[in-house]
Every structure is written in C-alpha cells, then in structure tokens.
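pls read this stuff:
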Amino acid sequence: MKKLFVIVLSFIFLTCSSERSNIKNECKEFLKMYNQVGQRLYTTAANAEWKASTDVKPEHTGQRIGANEALAAFMGSKYVIEKTKNFLKHKELLDELDIRQLEEILLNAASAPGTIPEVVSARIKAEANQSAILDGFEFCVKKIGDRCIEKTTPNRIDEILLKSVNLNERKKIWEVSKQTGPALKPGLIELQKLRNQVAQEMGFSSFFHLQVADYKMSVKEMTDMMQQFIDDLNPLYLQLHTWAKYKLAEKYKQPVPDLIPAHWISNRWAQSWPGLVEGVDLDYLFKGKSPEWIVQQAENFYISLGMPPLPKSFYEKSDLYELPPDSPRKKNTHASAWHIDYEQDVRSLMSVKSNYDWFETTHHELGHIYYYLAYSNPDVPVVLRGGANRAFHEAIGELISLAVRQPAYLKEVGVMPADMQVDRTKWLLAEALDNVVFIPWSAGVMTFWERDFYEEPLPVDQFNKRWWEYVKKFQGIVPPEPRGEEYCDAATKTHINDDPAQYYDYAMAFIIKYQLHMYIAKNILKQDPHNCNYYGNKEVGKFLWNLLKLGKTKDWRVLIREVTGEDVNSRAMLEYFSPVMKLLEKENSGKKIGWN
C-alpha cells in the first residue's frame, strides 16, 4: 500500500512537471514566433511609414495603410490574444522575462483587436489620411480668392515669432500657424470615435486609458502625478510668468497684461518662451558651420562617451536637411528618430539648419537613435526593444539636450570661444523659460485636454473652448482674439494627431531628465550641475549605456530607483532651478504674482 502511494505521488509529480515543462516550452515557442513574424511585419510597416513621411503622395499613404493593416492584423489577431491570455493564466510557471513579453503583446493587441477588424482598418486609414494632411500641409500667408500666392514654412513661422517686434505681424503669422486646425478637425472627430472603440473592445475605458496602461497606471494615477508636478513647480512658474509679462510688455510697448497674449510669445504653443533673456542667443556662433557639421558633431558627442559610431546606413537612409519652400517633394517637418527594423536600421527625419536650436535638437534626436542601438541586443527580445517606459526614451534625448546647453561642452567643441564669459544666472533663467514653462503645457494643457477628449468623450462643439480654458488655467495665456469652434487649435499640435494620448510622456521625461543629470553631475562627474561636461567621459557613457541596453526588460519604477536612489519626483528639477527662484523673488518684489 505504501509502495503504491509512493508510485501514485511520483506519477502525479511527473505529470505536473511534464505539464509545467510543456507550458513553458509552448510559451517560448509562441514568443519566438511572435517576435520573428512581428519584426518582419513591423519592418515593412516602418519602411512604408518612412516613405509616406518623407515623400507625401497618395500612393505612399496607400502603402502605409496596407502595411499597417497587415501588422495590426497579426498583433491583434484572435489567436495571439487567446494564446497570450492563456499563458498569462500560468504566470507561476513562467520566467519573468516571458511574462513581461506576454504583457507587452497583450498591450499591443489592444491597439488593434482582431475581434473588430473593420474598426481597426478604419482607424488605420483615418490615421494615415490625417498624417498625410499634416505632412503635406502648406501654410499660406497671402491669398487671392482660394489661390495661395505666398507660402511659408514652419521654420519661417518660428523665425518671425522669435524675432519680430511688430505685434500685427506677429498676430498674423501666429494665425497662419493655426491653419492646420480646420483641415485636421474632421479627421480628429473620426479618430476620437475609432480610437475609443478599439480601446474599449479590450476593456479599457478609453483610448487615453489604453495609452496610460503602458506605465501600469490608471488614468487617475497618471493625471494625479501630472498635477503633482504642476503643483510642485507652480511657485516658480508664477514667478516666471510675472517676470515674462513685464518683459514682454516693455518689449512691445504695451500695458502689462494679467494674462499673456499667445502671439507675444516666441513659440507657436507657448510650450517654451525663447528670446526673452538677452545675451544668451547663440545662433551667431553657428555662422560658417554647416548643417552637416552639426549632425557630425552630435555623433561625435556620443562617440566621445565610448558609444559606437552610427551605422553607415544612417547617413545613407536618413532625411536630415530642410527642403526649399518650392520643393515638389513634401515631408513631415517635425524632427523624429526612427527604428526601422528593431536592429541596426536607424534613421532620423529632420530639417537641420545652422543655428543653436537645431544643434540641440540634433543631439536630442541622436539620443533616441543610440537608445535604439543599445537595446537592439540578444538579451532583449524584439517585443521589449523600447524605452523602460515611453518617457524614458524622451528623457534620454532631453538629458543630452541639457548636456549640450552646458558652457563647458560648448567651449570644449569650439562652438563657444574659450574666453567667453557666461552670465550663469541669465543662462539658467533662459533654461527655465524653456524647461519649467514646459510642465504646465505638457502635464497640464495637453494631458488634461486629451484625457477629456477620449474619456468624456469631449463633444465636438467644445474642442476649442476646452482647449483655451486649459491654456488659461495652466499657462496663464489667452489668444489674441476669441477663437470659436470653426478652429481646432489643439489639432495644430502634431502629437494630437499622430502620437495621441501620450504627451504626459514628455512631462515625465523632463522630470526624469533632471534626476539623471543631477546624479551624473554629482556622483560621476563631481562637477557643478550648471556647468558640467559629459563630453569624453567614458564613465558617463558606461552609466548611460547600461541604462539604455535594458530596453523594457525591467520595471521602470525599479529602474529609476536603482539608478537615482529615489522615485520619479520633481525635487531634482526644483533644486537645479533654485537660483532662478531666488533671482525672480527679488526682481518681482512688489509686483502682482500670477493672474486672475
């Protein structure tokens, strides 16, 4: 009897072990298949997207739609969803890396569930058409009837907003910059419905909820975090707002306003406030330096840290420089980095000119490129080849932008004369007008408008009204004149159309940027965080590469704690800008702070 009992136990154990082994093996085979097929389909889709963005034509838009439909059909297929859900019922039998892949696969499937193929197909077509309108849009300064007789470019719009002191000219070009809104509004209405249908099919409350799920967070958790960033930085933002409106009123010879008119600010969306601090304009230092030099110097920065040179194909396949206004070819003018095959085919789409802004932007975009290269290694499965979270990708690009701003680096590479004296307080104030003012825009206006847009969902007759309510509430800014619902000013921001419900990524990225920078400056470089030099420091390169090469294989909360010793929070950013707060409290003494 005892012997029989032992035999039965042994049989049960062997059966369970065999079942456990079978599930693990089946899971690994499934993941192998998914990664291989997904990579091939993604590469085809990415190539089609690239062609459609760099040469805007109806046939290229059609190819983009077809390739994306094929990718979506695979990622969201019933087979993939059912197999993934089944494996996730047996988490206790699986490796942590396998579980992370399965969870990522299920999240990808939620963007294109095969249970509603007609809705997924309609969404893909609508997004491709929206991108085609955006990529091929021609801004018109002067018309005769319906015929445009004077066109302009986004770079020219930005140049006028930066340099003009003629308020009539500024108002006109600001209004020109909003011309895309009415053209994009019909497509945006359609996409609101289609994106929500797709997300709700997989149990999410809205498309916004689906996008937030990438962080393993709820909508409330994400918006609460964004509100906390805003609240933490609000005292400093109010000081900046007060200082800026007095400065702008003086510049334009106008009474000091309570709320700043949008066309007074040198950015189309007031997401940064350049040109207000005298003596920090560096564009003149780039006279005689070609756009090609700027790109090469950006690559040299990473090589100096011990990272590999860019693949030869980067220069062969990228689209890096500005097209003339009369070019028959039209391309997306928004700077971007592309990972075409999840391996070594990396590219950038830019319109590089010889100025400081593009010098910084090029370094930033190559930050994404080197992130791609770092996690494209055998230890990271294809489905996990991405940033630790979406914000990490942007944080790395932003971190390098911050490193590029440092006078020590600019002198090292010969942009700034070695004997040039820099007023560090002015320099830091200009940086605050670029970085601190970005938080109410990104964590506030963009995040809360898109939350409302998808979660409510926002009625079509409230698009512009809600937009300007949030601009006023978070930024303290108003349009030059009332903007009715015939406009759609939210749609003028490219991300609303082609990178939707993710703008909080940028807010979190800015916060993480300062956490990483303060750690690097204090613990690796042991230099002043306001004037340190990453260039040529292999320890900095090693620190960054070890962070980048992990991709999505580790929980982002764990990762940020491991590398900085704390959770994501605004402490480092506030510490970095504490000299600005002291300066402005003194300069704004006796003035009314904030707005009604």
